Amino acid sequence: MLRLFIGLSAPDDVAAQLAGLANGMPGARWVEPENMHVTLRFIGEVSEGDAEDIHVELSRLVAKPFSFDITGMDTFGQGRKAHALFAGVSLSAELELLQTRVEAAVARAGQPRKTRKFKPHVTIAQLKNTPETHLLGFIQTHNLFRAGPIAVDHYILYESRMGKGGSAYFPVAEYPLV
Q1: Predicted TM-score (pTM) of this structure
Q2: Fold of 2-176
Q3: pLDDT above 90 for 142
């Protein structure tokens, strides 16, 4: 079984800037710069045959290159229930169209559709029992963080493998935007 997702890699310079913010928060497990990305579609565990079907459908997808900006900080979950800290990504019509087409391709490959609304972001830390005052202070201090425009000319099918320090992500295939 393969654990897959589709995403946009964060450029090295932007990932380094985001990683440079990683300090001063108890309970935070910071994401390594090479693992920073924007998830277009989390798939989960599938067989190699299903992975091949997904690859074939993604290979047929057509979308144009575009760019996006990273803007501000926020969390998934609030207060003591916050479980992830992320940098926001501006939602452009082009990004939304790519995500919609990726979702349709994955569905054509036989995977169930996701019903959760698309909220583009770059996760920078997983949180566990992080004191709310630390979290709010971090967000206040870094909420003016901006990066971009970030040019996107391809997207990637990734495999996620669990390790001692968390997940590591490995590109399986890249798909150009033309």
Answers
A1: 0.95
A2: Cyclic Phosphodiesterase; Chain: A, (3.90.1140)
A3: yes
